[in-house]
Amino acid sequence: MKNNDIHPITERMIPTSEKMQLLGQKGMVFWFYGLSGSGKSTLALEMEKKLHRDGKISVLLDGDNLRTGLNKDLGFSDTDREENIRRVSEVASLLCSNGLIVLVSLITPLKKFRTNARRIIGANHFKEIFVKASFAACKKRDVKGLYAKAIEGNVKSFTGKTSDFEEPDQADLIINSEKESKIKSVEKVYQFLHQAITL
Prior knowledge:
This protein is α/β, with parallel strands linked by helices. It has one domain (19-135, 164-197): 3-Layer(aba) Sandwich (Rossmann fold). It has 8 helices and 5 strands; from the N terminus they run αβαβααβαβααβα. The chain has a 5-stranded parallel β-sheet with strand order 2-3-1-4-5, sandwiched between helices.
């Protein structure tokens, strides 16, 4: 619903292109997604460190961190997940439009969620990175103890068990963390990011 009392000042702001030139980087959003324990947050954290060492300005938006503040009012139903992703997409879009490199790490289980994120952010500034690992492999890792809780029935709407995860038909980059070493995966993602952010 349109509110006629709201008047964005977007057209009077410094253009994104000028901010990117100042920073020496292209504003981009890299959306890491996959099952809990697949390694998406690990990869995003490694990219933040590497970009920082390169003198690049990046922001990491991690699902768990956001749920302690911006999205602490949301649960894990599909409706709440959709709103969680919409809010994160809007924040990522704002940061990206100011020339920043945004690293998003969210499970993002459904294709429609990813499609909506791409629409909000804009296809030219949005890259999907699917971190692929089977439910069995993630369960074995169980870095947060969530799989054990889910098996006991103490976690509602657990992705891959009681809530669906739809693998992509295609993604801008697929990292198979079950079969690739961490070193290989990190280098693969870094090369992909470096190419995308170069002006």
